[in-house]
Amino acid sequence: MIGGTGAINLMVHSRGNPQDYDNWAQLGNPGWDWKTVLKYFKKSEDYRSPLEPKDAPFHGIGGPLSVQKVGWMPPVGKLAIEAGKELGLEEIDYNTDTKIGSNILQLPLRDGQRVTSADAYLMPNLRRQNLKLQINSQVIKIILNDDNVAIGVRYVHRNKVKRAFARREVIISAGGADSPKLLMLSGIGAREQLDKLGIKTSVDLPGVGQNYKDHVLLEGIHWTIHPNISSSVLSLLGPSALLRYQEKREGPMTVPPGIGASYFIKVGNPDEPTVPDIQVLLASQLVGQDYGILTLGKFKQSVSSYTVPRAN
Ligand SMILES: Cc1cc2nc3c(=O)[nH]c(=O)nc-3n(C[C@H](O)[C@H](O)[C@H](O)COP(=O)(O)OP(=O)(O)OC[C@H]3O[C@@H](n4cnc5c(N)ncnc54)[C@H](O)[C@@H]3O)c2cc1C
Fold first, then answer.
1. CATH tag, 129-204
2. Taking a C-beta distance cutoff of 8 angstroms, is the pair 190, 203 a contact?
3. What's the whole-model pTM score?
4. Do residues 138 and 154 lie in contact, with contact meaning Cβ atoms separated by under 8 Å?
5. Environment class of residue 51 by beta-carbon count within 10 Å: exposed (0-12), middle (13-18) or buried (19+)?
6. What are the domain boundaries of the chain?
7. Residue 179 CA, ligand 1 centroid: distance in Å
8. N or C: which end of the chain has fewer CB within 10 A?
9. Transmembrane segments in this chain: where (predicted)?
């Protein structure tokens, strides 16, 4: 898939915590500290929403990746920002170094449409002489020279094994699972593991494929809200929304269904009060709300339990 997971994800443009970058740098990774990566975040960005003066130094304008605040929110999203204030959570721009607070999400969006990394970087440069996009190809091995320096890749294209060589360097960006897999298939990994798989070790590098982390998502805190501030999938995706999107590139079809507001909060370690450890994402729709039209069969059985208000 051209553009990778960025072509199907939830589009939340979130840079992460300054402290995490600084920790990585301190662990022995020069160039990964917040101050350095911020330069590149800014360079990448074409920020298109109004900015508060205090937030402006953290954003870039004119870069390849357009980013803007969610332009349409269900009414309950706006109320969530107000509710945050009552809890002491000021509205913040979370892509700055202020991290605790309520916020309206920022999305990689241009003229109401998703912008993937391929849209931003690859497609506009396809005519360059030093770029070739080879689709329907699977890299199966990194080619190393006698000094174990990566000089190219072996890949399968139309059932044929082919090779491509690099003049300067090989960059592997096959995602969190396939990048380490490819390294291991190329003999770069923990010798013990490679031996078990019958792969000859070229570089004994025990960290490869370790420390895999995912962000845990807990879904299921659902409640019924007043119909006036609710939004159902059917009303969001109806003809008027379609027309609005087609004519003005505005409205509910410019955002992932139901989302808009979130809170970054701190519940754990009191020693780091400015570092959030939980993000609460408000989605004002339920899995069963489409009466099973869009969602999977297993949800159909529970539609009534999701949509019928509980008598208490
Ligand atoms: C449903 C979902 C929602 C998400 N929502 C968000 C969100 O809202 N905000 C956010 O920040 N993140 C989100 N993420 C995570 C985010 O999309 C990923 O972390 C990010 O896209 C990873 O980018 P990547 O380039 O490292 O890898 P990927 O996007 O996985 O790209 C890897 C690419 O390499 C290709 N590839 C793999 N192996 C080979 C091979 N051997 N040869 C050739 N090509 C290969 C793959 O086909 C793919 O195109 C979400 C992820 C999912 C799945």
1. 3.50.50.60
2. no
3. 0.88
4. no
5. middle
6. 4-112+215-307, 129-204
7. 11
8. C
9. none
